[in-house]
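so i finally got all the pieces together for this one. its two components total, 674 residues if u count the protein bits. some of the lines might not be protein, just check the labels. i wanna see the whole assembly predicted at once instead of chain by chain like last time, that was a mess tbh
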Amino acid sequence: MNPLLVKVLNDPHKSTQLTLNQWEILIPQARVASLLSTLYILLEEKGLLGSIPDRPRAHLFSDWLIHNSQVQTLKYEVKWLKRALGKADVKLILLKGAAYIAGNLPAERGRLIGDIDLLVPVEKIELCETVLAEFGWKPGEQEPYDEQYYRQWMHEIPPLRHVNRGSILDVHHTIIPPTAKPNLDAKKLFADAHEINPGIWVLAATDMVIHSAAHLFHEGEFDHGLRDLLDLDRLLRHFGEKETQFWAQLLPRAKELDLQRPLYYALRYVRHFFHNPIPPSVLEMTSALKPGYLKTRIMDFCFLRAFLPDHPSCCIRGVSIARFFLYLRSHYLRMPIHLLIPHLVRKARMRYFNDSKQDEGETNKALN
Amino acid sequence: MPRFKEITDTEAKDTLARGDLRLMVGPFAYCLQSNETLVFDGLRKLYGDHQILPTESFSDFHLSLRPANLVQKWRKKIDFYFDGQRPFNRIESQHAYAFLEWGMNWCVSTTANEQLKLHAAVLAKNGIGLILPGLPGAGKSTLAAALCLAGWRILSDEHALIPFRTNNLIPLCRPISLKNQSIEIIRKFDANVVLGPETHETHKGTVVHMKADLAPGSHDQSFIPAQLMIFPRYSQEAKLVLHKKPKTEAFMFAGLHSFNYSLLSQTGFDTMCTLMDAVSCYDLTFSDLDKAVQVIEKLLLEAGKS
């Protein structure tokens, strides 16, 4: 059973028949899924805004204003990033939300973004860090252990925060942790990246989809799961239509990057939730990538729940187990077990000792 | 629509426990759930004159104050839920009422960008709107409480809501929050003041809320044009000083302490311009509330003439 939010995303005209009590389920569902502004733009495009009640519309509009402000801020930050990386003689390659917005892709419509994700060659990481620091993006206070964790095992360095403007950069050197199982050569990503606007580069269409899938299906927290799945749905529809070779290249490319499994899941669930029109020939090929019967059943159980908005109206049986399982799975996928166990023990200990201190600080800050 | 005091205690308690108590607060509807006695008592005391909505309606914010599980119940800890999420950390159940009020403010602060939101207390008299911006501790709530007890209508003690490109104020009448010494000061100012549950040892000290919908038409939702903007500063033993404040300075201060001025970019700027063109701005240092109220009454008369 699909939640109301998914039904309306699939068929915006349903919004005209909702009762007020349905609206007060739809709005919170969209809010927790970070899809209020996406919904606003969708209803606007279909000319349906005028036929929905005032208060729900105000909530959609309010978040659309946030989206607008984020787009404006992003464009400004990108201007500075271009200058900074230009100084290091490194291409500015944007990933995920920032790439969709900078490239005016349909996944952009209403998309809220948090951090700005960049991809730079691993051998240029230190140089980029130095230059970005000159431009005001500096690493925050890190526990020495966390710092080491990022440096040694992760596909990105600790987040950088701009000292005046507060914008946050996630600087990646590849798209999955080097300790993870897939054997991915990041050079291939750089080789196929292309310039979408002067000085702004993004991954190739296939790589953008594969990255989005790898990110989502290696992830342990699904707060934005449905939104990220919707990104995938829109990217697939867009590239499928605009780039003639897209579907022919997608699966071979996933094989080349050793990321077939996440792509399989992506295709499976965009079809399930958003009825994505994947060409039959591609579907046929993906059936070879399908995990075994039992694994498929388990993953379905988990993902069909994890993508539900985290709202009481979607609290069906097994949701918390599914989320917990995926959380464990994400760690297991991130690094081999002999690295993982000491890491988790260490984190649990750090959390236990820091908790009380942090808790109060955060509550107070939020309420001031 | 009935008012909250028009239903019986049993019915009220039941509706609240079931999570179907729908209170109109200014332009927003809050749907509340709690089994905490403090929450029930506080709401009954302070929200009696607010309208309640039927189940078949749209509530903007769904809030619940309840223990997460039996262990937390036994430990007397509760959580604040907004749309089923827990944006804050666990709290002592004896802080429930203060937390509900903060939480209700927080909902407006973090959403509702469809209007400019300044951080200010807002009042009105004779159809003239008065904005009191101020940093926490400047005494805006205390002054707002005193004005309210002196016959002004309170439009909000925290958010000035201004529709885009107007100088109008959207009434958001809620109890006024008083902290620490202000509580005694206001009790002395008016012995008949109605106060809700007192919450001690919060991160802001002792907090209590004052019933503020005293003026007739307190819950009338018609807009009121802003014409006065006064920046209060409470200073113990200080003589009363009133200065005309340059509008540019007032603009910068109010914009800087707005919840969404920069988020709204051009629209925020345009709205601030319209607003600042319409208001006369003053700095007011005070220690004696009676005198402060008198001075503001005088400014009101002048504003009424112009």
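The radius of gyration of chain A is 21 Å.
The beta strands of chain A are 93-95, 116-119, 137-139, 160-162, 168-172, 194-197, 200-202.
anyway lmk what u think
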